[in-house]
Every structure is written in C-alpha cells, then in structure tokens.
Amino acid sequence: MRKSSISRRNFLGKATKAGVAGIAGYSLSTSTSSGETEDQIDSRLSPAVQLQFMRPRQVEEAMHKFPVVYVPFGLIEWHGKHLPLGNDALKAHGILVKCAGQFGGVVFPPLYFPHAQFVRGDETLQPGDEWKVNMLTALFNSIKAMGTRVIIGVSGHNVIHQNLMIEKALEPVVADGTVTGVGLQEITLSRGKDSNSDHAAKWETSNMMFLYPELVNMSELGTAPLAPDMKPPDGIGGLDPRIHASVEVGRRNVELAAEAIGRKAKELLNSLPEDQRTFNKSCICPGEWWMV
C-alpha cells in the first residue's frame, strides 16, 4: 500500500485555506517504491456545490441551471478500528459533491440519522420507524420549498430499510407532481466489478482512502487474521482491506457512483412536465425563502 506524501499539518492548512477545514479534501500525491511521483489523484471536494458554504446568489445560479438537491445520509456506526464512525454519511456526501460538480445541483450537508429497525428476512419498515419517516418528510418538504424540482436521498448505510425510509418519506412530497425524487444507496446505480460496497472492508476503506485519507489508520488493524463475517472483535464484512483496498479503487468507485447518480438526476428532471423543470422561486431571499 502506498503512503500519502501529505502531512497532517499540510492537510489542515489546505482545508483551512479553502475555507472548509475538516470537510474539503485535497490533492493527494502518491509515490512509487522507487520514489517516482505518479499522476496526481484529485480528491478535493468543492465548496461551490455544498449548500452550507454557498451564498444565496450561488444557490440561485445553481438551481436555475439544474434544480436538484442531493441529500446524503448515514449513521454513527462502527466501521472497524481503522475508519471513522461517520464513514457512511461522509462517503455518500463525497460522492454527491463529485456528482454535483459534474452535473450540477447542490448538496445538503451530511445527515446522521437514526437507523431503520433491521429485522433479518423482513424488508419492510417497522412501526417504530414512523417518526423517522415523518421527520424526513418534513425535511424534504423544506427542501422542496427552496424551489428544487428533484430530491435525491442517498444513504451510505447500505441496508434496504434505510432506503425504504427515504422512499416513503418522499411519497407525500412528490404527490402533487411539481417535484420528483428517489432514495438510493450510493452504488445502487453503479454496482459492478469497479463499483460496490461492503462494511469497512475493501470498498469502504478505499472510498475513505480517496476522499479522506487523513481519517484512515490501517495500522489499527494490526497484522493478525481478521475475524470473518462481521464477527467481533473486528466487525468487518468483506475482503481484507489491508490487501484489497487502495486509493485507486476508491477513486474509481466514487467516479462511477457519482456519474450514475448524476444521470439519474437528469432522467428524473426530464420526467417532469416541461413547465415543472425550472427553479420554482424568484430568488433565495427573505420574502421568498428563509431556511430549511
């Protein structure tokens, strides 16, 4: 595995200079064992499409061009000793920022939401999840009130129940036909040999190596065999990340997922009646809009 040539001080300096310390990525250079520098892999996350960093006029301009809002979801959850607890939403957020940078639209900040109750073999929502669905519906209605036409909720926690919550929450929001939306996992549309997911193993570790390498510490895993199938003490499901994870695997996975979600956003916008495909506000300003 190649080591990043960027120090923690340089990482923080680059993020602070961009005005988004702790959120923005940076350009990661890797070196071969002979000391030669390979092509730079750009993992920066542009603040220009992240709603929390945008000024009102920037939001207006983005929504006039492509009235889509992407909402990343995740949990605070164990992801091995080597990855951050916020992996799921960070992963989804990073992919969506790349997507918006390519296709347009704006990205909501990462949301850490209570997980849907999981019952093995039962792919339905449980009665105890109703309040969570109601909260998401309220959020999506507020995003609709921004003048958006497409809402795409993406869960980095790849359990079907999370997506069922998003889909059910969207139903009353899109019922009037002035807006549409979908709930996805980050790799729902790109799954294949170069794009997939797991739990803190090859794929999720690679995503973090690409998007947030300073948050990954592979030495925490040690050198002993890992417990299989999500079992303690490692809690990892998938291929051993010490062998199979890499920056390049993460870069390709993020690229394919972002492109597939962007194509879906265009498809959804074009599915609306022609008179419902444009920004539905005169401005982002008091009197027209105040907050989500």
Top keywords for this entry?
8 helices; 292 residues; alpha/beta; five-stranded parallel β-sheet; disordered N terminus; globular; two-stranded antiparallel ribbon; Rossmann fold
Can you walk through the features of this model?
The chain is of the alpha/beta class. It has a single domain (46-221, 228-276), classed as Rossmann fold, CATH 3.40.50. 36% of the residues lie in helices and 9% in strands. The strands form two sheets. Strands 3, 4, 5, 6 and 7 form a five-stranded parallel β-sheet that branches. It has a two-stranded antiparallel ribbon with strand order 1-2. Strand 3, helix 3 (87-103) and strand 4 (106-107) form a beta-alpha-beta unit. Helix 4 (130-144) packs across helix 5 (160-174). The longest helix is centred in the last third of the chain and has 25 residues, at 247-271. The termini are far apart. The model is unreliable at 1-41 (pLDDT under 50).
Question: What are the SSEs and their pairings?
Answer:
Blueprint: H1 8-17, E1 27-28, E2 41-42, H2 56-65, E3 68-74, H3 87-103, E4 106-107, E5 111-112, H4 130-144, E6 150-155, H5 160-174, E7 180-185, H6 202-211, H7 241-244, H8 247-271
Parallel strand pairs: 3-4, 3-5, 3-6, 6-7
Antiparallel strand pairs: 1-2
